[in-house]
Design brief:
With 178 residues, the protein is mostly beta strands. The protein contains 1 helix and 11 strands. The chain has a domain of 109 residues: Jelly Rolls, CATH 2.60.120.
């Protein structure tokens, strides 16, 4: 005889609602100490990537990441492989240029400062970067946990043409998805 209590891996969870993901992101952000005390001192960016990241938690229903963005760090236009999510800026500022794969429209740009967050629907594509001059720190929560990220062209004439898909397992590859 088995039950959900004795075999939790067999529980089938759907994606958590965006509001819940935003609450998780902002709650985890409260545990991060800004002003350089974010736990990344011993983790150097690898390759040409100006971001450093650490998985905060992973469950069957969602995962959370802490990301430090050095000035000029930039993650090109991408989706989250059908996952939805939320991110919350702990320190500094990030810029998000976003569009939707279903409701096609030009990219819209928004500055997101410390103490602010954004929801990311499953059809949203976005480019995120740190405009500088200081490092930014953010918490990102995805449900279900990421399995892939597709990167898109942002040029006129080929806008939203898929360029490549990175499959995500565990920690991301330097310069890759997250």
């Amino acid at each position: 005889m088995s039950s959900a209590l004795t075999q939790p891996d067999e529980i089938q969870l759907g994606p958590l609602e965006l509001g819940i993901l935003a609450d998780i992101a902002s709650g985890l952000a409260c545990s991060v100490i800004p002003d350089g005390q974010d736990g990344f001192e011993g983790i150097a960016p690898q390759g040409g990537d100006l971001r450093r990241f650490a998985r905060l938690l992973h469950t069957p229903g969602y995962e959370a990441w802490l990301i430090a963005w050095e000035a000029a760090a930039d993650l090109e236009l991408h989706d989250h492989g059908g996952s939805q999510g939320a991110f919350y800026v702990v320190d500094g500022a990030l810029v998000e240029a976003h569009a939707d794969l279903v409701d096609l429209a030009p990219l819209q740009t928004l500055l997101i400062g410390a103490g602010e967050g954004r929801d990311v629907t499953p059809t949203r594509v976005h480019r995120v970067w740190n405009p500088g001059p200081a490092r930014a720190v953010s918490v990102h929560v995805y449900s279900p946990p990421l399995s892939s990220m597709t990167f898109y062209d942002d040029q006129p004439g080929t806008f939203l043409t898929p360029l490549r898909t990175d499959f995500v397992e565990g920690a991301p590859e330097p310069g890759g998805a997250r």
